[in-house]
Amino acid sequence: MRFVWAVVAFVLATLMIGAGIAQRTVLRGPETVSETVAVSGDAPFTLLDGSVLTSRSGTQTLRIEGDGTIFAAYGRTSDVEAWLARADHATIEPAGDGEVAVTDVAATAAVSDEGAEAAAPVSPVGSDLWLEEFQREDALMTSLQLPADMSVLIASDGTAAAPSDIRITWPVESNTPWAGPLIVGGGIMLAVGIVLYALGWRHLRRSRGPRRKGVPLTATQPIDLAIDDESAERGVIAATPPRRRLTRGRGSFIALPVVVVSALALSGCSADAWPQLSASETPTPTATVVAEPDQQTPAVTQAQAERILTRIAEDVSQADAGADAALAGTRLTGPALAERETNYTLRATITDRAPLPPIPAEPLQILLPETFDQWPRTFLAVVEGSGDSADTIMTVSQQDPWSNYKLGYISELATDTFPELAPAYLGAPQVAPDSPFLLLPPQELAAAYADLLTNGDASPFASLFEADGDAFRAGVASNREQIVADFNQTGAETGTVSFTTQAGTQAPIALQTLESGAIVAVTITEDHTFTPSNPDAVINVPDTNPVASALTGVSQSSTGFTTTYADQLFFFVPAAGSNEPIQFLGYRSNVLSAKVV
């Protein structure tokens, strides 16, 4: 009977293991599903809409084939469409019933005479709009996992027709939850069958084996079959081996197949080969900052901002090396560009004139992007200093979809405290220049601080600004005292020195903080004027200060000189009604120009 049950166990084991293996092999369905799109026509660009990519779940594998260079980039759908507004292109969109349709779209944005230099885009390579871009020859394949609000731009070189063969592949969920239990159960049945077979064989041997006849015993001397020391001395031989040997032999025979079967059953069974008896719980973080319902999209992501800053740093470094103002102008604007143009001019005349500090790009410590879906758009960044250098704060703006981001304001932080900002993934709106919701409107901030520098505590705006920690204010007062003292050593009787301070022409940039305040960047200009006090006197440019001579082209003047310095300043302006004063955050000051009075 034991043999019968052993055979049954073997048959069940074979069926169960076979069924489990079949589920993982021949009975398993396809692991991927693909959609092939053929784009006809000669449009230089193709927009693969994000809704096509997310029509099925899972990672999207994109394969593009064509002749020559193949370019692909992805970004927010609204950004890609804005970039394509000046160019004819094809759009791949869902057509219902799981199908896709290719539609030709004509350019919708006209190019004005003033924007002729920014005509229809020629090459999408290197645009700051893209979150990531790829470029290969003849064939390009990449794996993506994009949300529905992001799309892919496909092109060749921007002028030739875009690649026509596009294939999208998604994984298909083909779990086999009973393969594991069947294989393991089959292994257990196999082990049971082996044990039953062994027991049946042992029973057969015991019941049918040869039997020895008994030794004739005398009536007076029976043979003692017990195994002990006395029997050994008498020369009696035991009829059976010790019980210890029988037990050890049987245990090893049964344990070996169980171990082998367990290893066979458990090897190669991945998680999708087992039933999920309970749903896995994903922890949900509690948001401390919630976006407004009507808040728009942040201008850049963290990775995008880091890449933009790296490009700016590299281009400006190259411009600094060759004193190339035109190249610097591709990545700088406003006061940041003006100070470098002046530096290039001075370096061409003054051989030992040092270049300005390089633009830092990493590590990006603070990022606050503007929430705005249109243009221009801006983000604020703070890059951590290295060694003894201070942290750098800057604003970077993009004027339209076809322009590079350009750095406009840059300063060194001069404070250890910083206002609390929204996280980078939420961003913050830009505050209007005339906003009445701040302690001082951004467009009035520069003039108020300029008056404070001129009149000190007598200024009507003195109570609005925090004096403690304002290193720039103290430095300006000290510097002016030193200039007057140096001038009076030789020119007190023949000339005078005066200082005027006014708001700069650059528009302020203000981004909102969490407590309804704003970080505001402004510029002011300082004029240092040296004039003779009588008609016979002249003002000579001292050898220790060749800047005025280099910028004006003369070394003396009977009417005097005016040297202008540009100051880039960052402030934290609290909300209107706040009891806190305006906090000074950072500054940078460099000579801007010089002229003969």
From TrEMBL:
Residues 297-595 form the DUF8094 domain. Coiled coil: none annotated. The chain crosses the membrane at residues 178-199, 253-274. InterPro entries: DUF8094 (IPR058407). One of its GO terms (molecular function) is transferase activity. It holds the Pfam family DUF8094. The keyword Transmembrane applies. Keywords: Membrane, Transferase, Transmembrane, Transmembrane helix. This is Glycosyl transferase. It comes from Microbacterium radiodurans.
